[in-house]
Amino acid sequence: MVRLLAQVPTWQESDVVRWSEDLQQYEEHGLRARRGGRVIESGGVVIAVLTVGWKSPRTIAGRTRPVSLEYLVTDENHRGGGHGSRLVRYAVQELARQDCPGVHLKVFKGDDGWEGASRFWERHGWTEHSDLTTDRHIVMTEETASALPA
């Protein structure tokens, strides 16, 4: 997991200790942990990771969103296989089960491929909030209450 996160320019090696502690908490508490993640493995190797952080609730478009999706990374050799999409669907459905009203994320414009990332989130139904967009990042949201089947 750390190997994939290290591919993200905004992620720093100093985060390793913090992430090790957070991942231990995640093993005990699942997505209710302060920070955690979900991975997809192939042949015993992590090929995709999605990290989630519970933060101070943020109100965006009139709805409280206590959860932030922090990183979604798929190994270069496994992109295009739907792994990221599966991780996102899992996280949104799991957060809905936990009565989380919504989730938000930031797409950092300085990261390689940020335009493709923005299109990825839009294809998955996420809404961009231009009033919160800056020269550094785009803020996007997703409702989780409707994620569960009726």
Model description:
The protein has helices at residues 2-5, 15-29, 83-97, 114-123; strands spanning 35-42, 45-60, 63-74, 102-108, 127-128, 137-143. With 150 residues, the chain is an alpha+beta fold. The chain is built from 4 helices and 6 strands; from the N terminus they run ααβββαβαββ. Helices cover 29% and strands 35% of the residues. It has a 6-stranded mixed sheet with strand order 1-2-3-4-6-5. The model has no long low-confidence stretch (mean pLDDT 79). The radius of gyration is 15 Å and the shape is globular. Strand 2 (45-60) and strand 3 form a beta hairpin.
Short description:
The protein has helices at residues 2-5, 15-29, 83-97, 114-123, and strands at 35-42, 45-60, 63-74, 102-108, 127-128, 137-143. It has 150 residues and is an alpha+beta fold. It has a 6-stranded mixed β-sheet.
How would the blueprint of this fold be written?
Layout: H1 2-5, H2 15-29, E1 35-42, E2 45-60, E3 63-74, H3 83-97, E4 102-108, H4 114-123, E5 127-128, E6 137-143
Parallel strand pairs: 3-4
Antiparallel strand pairs: 1-2, 2-3, 4-6, 5-6
Output the keywords.
alpha+beta; 4 helices; globular; single chain; 6 strands; 150 residues; six-stranded mixed beta sheet
Work out the helix count.
4
**Number of separate strands:** 6
Taking all residues together, what is the mean pLDDT?
79
DSSP helix fraction: 25-40%
Gyration radius from CA atoms, angstroms: 15 Å
**Order of helix and strand elements from N to C terminus:** HHEEEHEHEE
Strand order of the largest sheet: 1-2-3-4-6-5
* Classification by helices and strands: alpha+beta
Largest pleated sheet: 6 strands, mixed
**What spatial form do the alpha-carbon principal axes imply?**
globular
DSSP strand content: 25-35%
Q: Could you tell me how far the N terminus lies from the C terminus, measured between alpha carbons in angstroms? A: 34 Å
Low-confidence stretches: none
